[in-house]
């Protein structure tokens, strides 16, 4: 499934934490209120990309992009290194262990200056997981995305994932050990010491005993794919996977492959919360399945609503969903969007009980099915970026479930030429809009879309990439989250207040 430009790519990017010390000073003798902490661009970012495929006929595209950030320096650099020691640009080391890649003298990609995307390609089953770092002017909002096309076989279609920062806890509702599904949890350790990880599985009847998922060791600067079906003999669809790190940090993502309905990456869902938003269900979805789980001691009762272009509605027959404590609940919503842009909104009917949730979305019918996932998303916040967009096949969905909002969307320069373009959109309260995506003037290559909140209520967003090959409607969906490109830094007065105490 070759393309002239391998531009349909998933991915996103989350940022490593930047540590700062802040102190609240007491009011001065004059009674003046302390000044708010300044927000400055981050100076270093880490991203982790899982090994893209185990198929010999896989073609993978990578895109690196840093949005222009006011106040950031002009120096610095961004680099991607293969997990296990070999540089992705072939400059140092040799690759050992799982996810090994062939050493090459050609770089996967060479990041360009902020504001311009850089692209690269690889193919086959030996492409490694990547560990990325960026500093200086390349760090604020750095985004790396990965998309893989598999022409045939298990999980054929378009698979996309955002490269994300390391963390210590992840929730994946929507995984499976059912017959016909092959799901892997990919764990990548960016640090100099080993990470120790537990993988817990929760099915329709509660926790599934899985001693083999305990105390898993991920070596320093290494990546490990863990096949879920090796952790339990139970075969269940609609599992919730909980990845918790006992020591160290890892990046985690689930690769879900179906032998009949394609496959995609299942990214981690937003943290457990009483309300969740799952943005950007495709207009032509033929089947939508909700998977929800509550990790606490109380059951959750949730209102189920859809944010359409004309407002919030309650789908007939699915007004509410009851999620038992510690048990995964799956609800088949069918072709719930019926040709309209839509997002699913879950809110408590009474008491707020934290839940995690995701949607399994199918396009096509019969032997032309293809699958993707929409995890519950955090709001866009100040700014979020989606890289590797093309002139065709890109859909940007924006939803404002609690109030009217205004956002600014900027299309970057193209990877091979073009001038940035910016448009402003107003999203009415309770609606979802598939907006008319701006494209750079004179576009050549691929481009990035940066969404910035201007005013109003929280906005949630997702980007769909689509490419039909051989009659199969290949697609992948990524949610857009805050890029954390700036960090709060205390003022001089706040710093001095520490000495006064």
Number of strands: 38
Alpha carbon gyration radius? 22 Å
Distance between the termini: 66 Å
- Low confidence ranges: 1-31, 85-105, 496-501
Tell me what portion of residues adopts beta-strand conformation. over 45%
Helix proportion of residues, in percent?
under 10%
Q: Which descriptor suits the 3D outline?
A: globular
Distinct helical segment count: 1
Overall average pLDDT: 87
Describe the sheet with the most strands.
5 strands, antiparallel
Decide which structural class fits the backbone. Answer: mainly beta
Report on the structure:
This protein has about 500 residues and is mostly beta strands. The N terminus and C terminus are likely disordered. Strand 36 and strand 37 form a beta hairpin. The chain has one helix and 38 strands.
Blueprint (SSEs and pairs):
Elements: E1 10-11, E2 38-41, E3 44-49, E4 58-65, E5 78-82, E6 118-123, E7 130-135, E8 143-150, E9 157-162, E10 169-175, E11 181-188, E12 195-203, E13 206-208, E14 216-218, E15 223-227, E16 239-247, E17 251-258, E18 262-266, E19 276-281, E20 285-293, E21 300-308, E22 311-313, E23 320-323, E24 328-334, E25 342-348, E26 356-363, E27 370-375, E28 383-389, E29 394-400, E30 405-411, E31 417-419, E32 421-427, E33 431-435, E34 441-444, E35 447-456, E36 460-469, E37 472-480, E38 486-489, H1 492-499
Antiparallel strand pairs: 1-8, 2-38, 3-7, 4-6, 4-8, 5-7, 8-9, 10-16, 11-15, 11-17, 12-13, 12-14, 12-16, 17-18, 19-25, 20-24, 20-26, 21-22, 21-23, 21-25, 26-27, 28-35, 29-33, 29-36, 30-32, 30-35, 31-34, 36-37
